[in-house]
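CopG family transcriptional regulator, pasting as requested.
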Amino acid sequence: MQTTLRTKAADSEKITLNLGFVDLGHVDLLVAEGFYSNRSDFIRTAIRNQLDRHGDTVRQTVARRRLDLGLQHIGRHELEALREAGQTLAIRVLGLAVIAPDVTADLARATIASIEVLGALQASPAVKAALGDRLS
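Structure tokens follow.
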């Protein structure tokens, strides 16, 4: 019997942070008292509260910088069409940019003029290396 593992694109990014012992103790106290289910729940809630607090500034900046909000998927067929038309792509995303696994480094280099991602970029190591000088 052969088992096939399917990979699923992550819908979040893992981060690491350093927190002072007293602050960590406060978080643990709130978790123990049932205000939050765990430390991660507290941190996600705190981040969302701060994003809500600065929501107007974020919206204005996204509009000013002309960022696409959310998920942008860049596929091989799209890039091949751009190459055939002699055009290039400027990728500007707040969220997640995914360059399809079947996009070669040469195709990416020939068709992606610049790439700015505030969030996460998912692409093969070869494509990331090929676009290294175009990432901002």
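Note for the archive: The helical segments are 21-32, 39-53, 55-65, 76-85, 105-111, 125-130.
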